[in-house]
Design a protein that fits this description.
It is built from 20 helices and 14 strands. It is α/β, with parallel strands linked by helices.
Length: about 425
């Protein structure tokens, strides 16, 4: 069966979606991995496919789901925001609403805790399965080969360094404050407060980076969130020789290579913890707890003063760290599961596999998709943001990663990777 897998943010999605596409191709499926707009166009050319949804947005997702159902498609969902939430669980409850469950065919959840939180919205619990997330699956030792070459390159270039992962996409958005208010205002509660708080955190991290550059004897890598305006950091620290602003590729090799990671409130703290490197969190002493996500802070060593961070870096003391976070692994991330295998198995059951369901895209339709991709790059009002979020989503990265998996994993059978256009690729045997 044809399986359509949209990608929005390369840094967090690309590697695991390449690996998943390979596994599904090994089972005889044909997997299309592409920019969301390319995947949506592809829906018009195919029948009887599976759509791998990455998150529900009220008012927008309904249009996509309707189109899928008209083409006899199935919808499976793995929300990219499904594990890390605010204290009131507002993100989960909005994204896993009763309307959502009425429209999808199967839902993969990060952990049993999420299942408990959303249980009141469920009409049919049989369509929900706690699998964990492949993004975190790749943090296990057996997958580290995927990142070893990049880790080596990073260390050779930057030596010892402190990594700063920022997460101020609302207050420092690449498209500005007005875009944030218009785009997220109806979907995100307290958006004005969040924007203001992001700007406060941005100022605090400016001070942090300037202080680190003066007081520690190593390089500093600033890695802004994909939706942030990177140029602000580049201009601010242009005169500091030890500060480098880098945002391309997966964050994982950077976490593996760094001496210490510092963040305000970022999911990468959890990834760092899984890798055996508890991160540092810096927030104002009076920060509003309803505007931060709980798990990244729980998994971090928390500070409110920059000088205390300097002292910690010079003489690390882990007594202040909440080591009990490990007890939450299974609750929130089902880390002991093999999420890849569970997702592939469920898809096999859902599609009642039949090779006759593999429809080809005509040359005419391939040409249409190429023209659409070309036009979108020239005329799309969101292209700057798209380019930032899809940085690294290209033939070279996909081909190299595919070959690396082929050479180093247990799944060494050759998988054909075809470039439909610069924004759409197909995996098959």
């Amino acid at each position: 069966m044809n399986i359509l897998i949209p990608i929005e943010t390369s840094s967090r999605e690309l590697v695991y979606k390449i690996y998943l596409s390979r596994l599904l191709a090994l089972k005889g499926h044909r997997c299309y991995l592409g920019r969301k707009t390319q995947i949506y166009s592809l829906m018009g050319f195919l029948k009887n496919y599976i759509y791998f949804d990455k998150g529900y947005h009220h008012g927008e997702s309904e249009k996509i789901y309707k189109k899928i159902k008209q083409n006899n498609g199935l919808i499976v969902s793995l929300d990219e925001e499904g594990g890390v939430d605010f204290e009131d669980n507002s993100t989960l409850l909005n994204r896993y609403s009763s309307q959502f469950f009425n429209q999808v065919d199967h839902v993969f959840l990060w952990g049993k805790k999420q299942n408990e939180i959303i249980s009141n919205n469920l009409k049919n619990s049989k369509i929900v399965e706690v699998t964990g997330h492949p993004r975190f699956e790749l943090l296990k030792q057996k997958y580290h080969y995927l990142y070893q070459n990049k880790v080596k390159d990073i260390k050779n270039k930057y030596g010892d360094f402190v990594l700063i992962n920022t997460n101020m996409g609302f207050g420092n958005n690449i498209k500005g404050d007005n875009f944030v208010i218009q785009n997220y205002g109806e979907r995100v509660e307290k958006i004005d407060q969040i924007v203001s708080f992001d700007k406060q955190k941005l100022s605090l991290f400016f001070d942090l980076i300037e202080t680190l550059a003066k007081k520690i004897n190593c390089n500093i890598i600033v890695r802004p969130h994909p939706e942030e305006c990177q140029e602000i950091y580049q201009k601010k620290f242009n005169d500091l020789d030890k500060v480098f602003v880098c945002s391309s590729g997966s964050v994982i090799p950077w976490l593996m290579a760094t001496k210490q990671m510092i963040h305000p409130d970022c999911t990468t703290a959890i990834e760092s913890y899984f890798l055996g490197k508890p991160a540092i969190s810096l927030l104002p002493i009076d920060f509003p707890r309803d505007l931060v996500t709980k798990l990244p802070l729980t998994s971090s060593i928390m500070f409110n003063e920059i000088d205390d961070i300097i002292d910690f870096i010079h003489k690390p003391k882990f007594s202040s760290f909440n080591s009990n976070f490990s007890d939450l692994f299974e609750d929130y991330f089902a880390y002991e599961n093999n999420s890849f295998d569970m997702i592939v198995e469920r898809i096999m059951i859902l599609c009642n596999f039949n090779k006759n369901n593999l429809m080809n895209i005509s040359l005419k339709n391939q040409l249409y998709l190429k023209v659409k991709a070309f036009k979108s790059k020239l005329f799309s009002s969101n292209q700057i943001l798209v380019n930032k979020k899809l940085n690294g989503f290209n033939w070279e990265t996909l081909n190299n990663t595919n070959l690396n998996i082929e050479l180093n994993s247990n799944h060494r059978k050759k998988i054909n990777l075809k470039k439909i256009n610069s924004e759409l690729f197909m995996f098959s045997i």
